[in-house]
Known about the structure:
The protein is built from 14 helices and two strands, in the order H-H-H-H-H-H-H-H-E-H-H-E-H-H-H-H.
Amino acid sequence: MTVYRQGLLKSPMAFLKVAFGLLITVSLAHPGLGFGWGFGGAPSYGLFPQFYQFSCPQADDIVMSVLDKAIAKEPRMAASLLRLHFHDCFVQGCDASVLLDDSATIASEKNALPNRNSIRGFEVIDEIKAKLEEACPQTVSCADILAMAARGSTVLSGGPSWELPLGRRDSKIASLSAANNNIPPPNSTLQNLIALFQRQGLDEVDLVALSGGHTIGVARCATFKQRLYNQNGNNLPDETLERSYYYGLKSVCPKSGGDNNISPLDFGSPVKFDNLYFKLILWGKGLLNSDQVLLTGNVGNTMELVKAFAEDGNLFFEQFAKSMIKMGNINPLTGFNGEVRKNCRLVN
């Protein structure tokens, strides 16, 4: 009667391999069922795309339905959610620490210099979490919600999709100091950008590809004003700025005041995920210093990468997807580490 004789599985060994594989999958998806396999009897855990296949199969559909409405209502939200994932992963790894509010024991990362009056989209994450808690209580982590929202926002803006490894758990702590020190400032030099990315295990290719996320979204005047009025401490504009673009930006950002006025990072297609961002950099129309130095910084291969992505949109999409997976794998909490928060703003 054995199933392998019916042509479904060729041998008893193949049957055992499948059964063994299923057992491991169940063990990983439900850490409470740890079988103690692995080195020294300790279970080993990693991220994998099918993590919620049995415990919450509708997770991605729920995420996408909330994103669909939120981005239709405010297209800029896609960029905000993509950025939230980035600002999370660069501090303690991808653990949803960025979502924690101030409390008696937590100094929120939301108050860090790169985040204050800047990161947004928390209400959308709250809505996704509430719907997931209804469907699958205490199953889907806030860290995974951030990763799924970043991918969904990219897709809904016309960008690439990717097979997303899941299974992150949520941190019980935040780090205001790491948020201040690890997130690249908008006026970064190229050396500084490369160093901050290397600290997270990301290379120059990842740096340029992930910077391409600036193909959507906007930035506040405060983040690029020095380029218009005092780039090198000499009260002169940044000479790498193309002239007509420079005059346009001056009309949006006066020398004094107007710090919260906004300008698109990619003024040609600010809500469409494409490779125009790289073309604009080649034309001297990168908005932030950290955008333009990818071309002018004279370190490593970033100039060649900007040119390659400007020339070939498919190449950019392919690399962006790979680099997003790599970024999403920075020091995740898995297995019995951390927790699955019921409310993304508070520890349980």
